[in-house]
Design goal:
There is one protein chain. The chain is built from 12 helices and 8 strands. With 264 residues, the protein is α/β, with parallel strands linked by helices. It has a single domain, classed as Alpha-Beta Barrel (TIM Barrel), CATH 3.20.20. Strand 3, helix 5 (93-105) and strand 4 (110-114) form a beta-alpha-beta unit. Helix 2 (27-35) packs across helix 4, helix 5 (93-105) packs across helix 6 (120-128) and helix 6 (120-128) packs parallel to helix 8 (157-173). The longest helix is centred in the middle third of the chain and has 17 residues, at 157-173. The N and C termini lie far apart (35 Å). The chain binds 3-methyl-2-oxobutanoic acid and sodium ion (NA). Residues 23, 42, 44-46, 84, 179, 181, 202, 212, 214 line the site of 3-methyl-2-oxobutanoic acid. Its cofactor is Mg(2+). It is an enzyme of class 2 (transferase). Pathway: Cofactor biosynthesis; (R)-pantothenate biosynthesis; (R)-pantoate from 3-methyl-2-oxobutanoate: step 1/2. It catalyses: (6R)-5,10-methylene-5,6,7,8-tetrahydrofolate + 3-methyl-2-oxobutanoate + H2O = 2-dehydropantoate + (6S)-5,6,7,8-tetrahydrofolate.
């Protein structure tokens, strides 16, 4: 795989070419993903759940994200690598700069921040200081205790309008990618058509520019739990490489996500 940059993603959006991405936490899987042409990888704070066995992402530290970012970068030199800014790492724009620097120095090409318009100053400050930013809207898991659980977001008209406004404000502030998690497909479609930056969805229907899944979900290894929007590709193929190849191909063809994996 050639080196992937934000320019490639913008071109794919403009051409309507859907792209797949996955979370990754270690060098071995990162290498496998790169060999199967997964252009975008995310070192997610989901590592608190899938690696550490916690019930949410809140206890994950910047140091842990940096460690796993170094691991993933070692296995995948060419992917566009995003790393999550964990809970409270963006409490102030100044703290966000310090913490983002640690992730960029660990090998990330971009940091991902959870939250809406309140992050405009932070996104601006990071971008001006040469840290590319992805903004994560919808079911932002760091807000699980505000939401009262892991619930689909943006079903009410007012909240949907707010999410569109947030996406526009964050793009204007400099965000170069938007991730939408667990939002109705119609809202994700509207946001994808409204902003000019690439939109990557998870549980957001088939109309976003890209898709992302947590690798443990798409390999069906998260013991007794499979989110509605995910799909067990290992069960279908019996081989990790074939599973990833099938996911990449089904995203490109538009077969995934189907209506069974989508919130209306
Ligand atoms: O941490 C994570 O894995 C994520 C993705 C679900 C987008 O933020
Ligand atoms: Na995350």
């Amino acid at each position: 795989m050639k080196k992937i940059t934000i320019t490639d993603l913008i071109t794919w959006k403009q051409q309507g070419q859907k792209f797949a991405s996955l979370t990754a936490y270690d060098a071995s899987f990162a290498q496998l993903f790169e060999q199967q042409d997964v252009p975008v990888l995310l070192v997610g704070d989901s590592l608190g759940m899938v690696l550490q066995g916690k019930s949410d992402t809140l206890s994950v530290s910047v140091d842990e994200l940096a460690y796993h970012t170094r691991c993933v970068r070692a296995g995948s030199p060419n992917s566009l690598l995003m790393a999550d800014m964990p809970f409270m790492s963006c409490a102030t724009p100044e703290q966000a700069c310090t913490n983002a620097a640690a992730l960029i120095k660990a090998g990330a090409n971009m940091v991902k921040v959870e939250g809406g318009s309140w992050l405009v100053d932070t996104v601006k400050m990071l971008t001006e200081r040469a840290v590319p930013v992805c903004a994560h809207l919808g079911l932002t898991p760091q807000s699980v205790n505000i939401f009262g659980g892991f619930k689909v977001q943006g079903r009410e008209e007012e909240k949907a309008e707010q999410m569109v406004a947030d996406a526009v404000a964050l793009e204007k502030a400099g965000a170069q990618i938007i991730v939408l998690e667990c939002v109705p497909a119609s809202l994700a479609k509207r946001i994808t058509e409204t902003v000019s930056v690439p939109v990557i969805g998870i549980g957001a229907g088939g109309d976003t520019d890209g898709q992302i899944l947590v690798m443990h979900d798409m390999l069906g290894v998260s013991a007794n739990y499979m989110p509605k929007f995910s799909k067990n590709y290992l069960a279908e193929t019996g081989d990790a490489r074939a599973a990833v190849a099938k996911y990449v191909q089904e995203v490109a063809s538009g077969e995934f996500p189907g209506s069974a994996h989508t919130f209306k």
